[in-house]
């Protein structure tokens, strides 16, 4: 399918690895020029070289997108982008009695306030031009909370509420905002969570992964490539009637009728 976005320009944050890279690769395959950001400069440049091999222009800005200085540099490099994909690593697991106010502030900065700041900076120009796409990578936890990920549950649900209202205000201008809710995918985040299970239960990593795979009806982890394919579709000309939605990509793990 021709996604109709060849020659568009996109900003993808946390794009050097995992789900962010999966989205960047799918957009590059569709002919979209990219501005990509991540904290690690070496991994970011390696990703950029792989993306340029697909025949698109790629600009890199290394740094922590949750920091105002980095965000300013990223926005300057991005300019008038047509597509925004927001992504940031999730906060660590833990127990609700152990989290301080500072823990919540860090989670909110990364997984709620930063994507909101990027939308506030870039969406107005999209509405002026009459076309734009925003995809926020959140989590299945906004549909069904994950007890050990309470910081993520709280911050990402806040972002979901913001998108619910804002998306319906900008849709008339040809701009769509939607969220993608990943379950367990084969990324560094999955490895970190598997490691936590391994240590907590005194089992090896293979068994920890097998236990978590068994909780997924698809009986496997998702891949960044299939996640990226959905992202690219939501950014396409074919998704103009998809507004303010929360798209689960979790292999059926979230048990819900709606």
Question: How would you describe this protein?
Answer:
The chain has 258 residues and is of the alpha/beta class. The protein contains eight helices and seven strands. It has helices at residues 18-29, 41-52, 68-78, 101-129, 150-170, 188-201, 205-213, 224-234; strands at residues 9-12, 33-38, 58-62, 83-86, 132-137, 175-182, 246-249. It has a seven-stranded parallel beta sheet with strand order 3-2-1-4-5-6-7, with helices on both faces. Strand 5, helix 5 (150-170) and strand 6 form a beta-alpha-beta unit. Helix 1 (18-29) crosses helix 8, helix 4 (101-129) packs parallel to helix 5 and helix 6 packs across helix 7. The longest helix has 29 residues, at 101-129. The two termini are 28 Å apart. 43% of the residues are buried.
């Amino acid at each position: 399918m021709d996604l109709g976005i060849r020659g568009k320009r996109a900003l993808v944050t946390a794009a050097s690895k995992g789900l962010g890279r999966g989205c960047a690769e799918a957009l590059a395959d569709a002919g979209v020029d990219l501005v990509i950001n991540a904290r690690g400069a070496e991994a970011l440049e390696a990703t950029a070289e792989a993306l340029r091999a697909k025949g698109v222009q790629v600009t890199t800005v290394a740094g922590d997108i949750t920091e105002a200085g980095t965000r300013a540099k990223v926005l300057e490099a991005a300019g008038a982008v047509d597509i925004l994909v927001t992504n940031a690593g999730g906060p660590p697991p833990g127990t609700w009695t152990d989290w301080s106010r500072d823990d919540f502030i860090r989670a909110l900065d990364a997984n709620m306030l930063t994507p909101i700041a990027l939308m506030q900076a870039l969406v107005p120009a999209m509405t002026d031009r009459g076309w734009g796409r925003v995809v926020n990578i959140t989590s299945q936890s906004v549909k069904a909370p994950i007890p050990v990920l309470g910081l993520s549950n709280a911050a990402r649900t806040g972002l979901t509420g913001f998108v619910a209202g804002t998306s319906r205000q900008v849709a008339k201008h040809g701009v769509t905002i939607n969220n993608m809710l990943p379950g367990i995918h084969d990324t560094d985040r999955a490895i970190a969570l598997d490691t936590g299970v391994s240590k907590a239960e005194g089992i090896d990593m293979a068994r920890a992964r097998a236990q978590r795979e068994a909780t997924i009806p698809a009986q496997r982890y998702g891949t960044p490539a299939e996640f990226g394919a959905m992202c690219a579709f939501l950014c396409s000309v074919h998704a103009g009637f998809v507004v303010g939605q929360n798209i689960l990509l979790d292999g059926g793990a979230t048990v819900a009728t709606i």
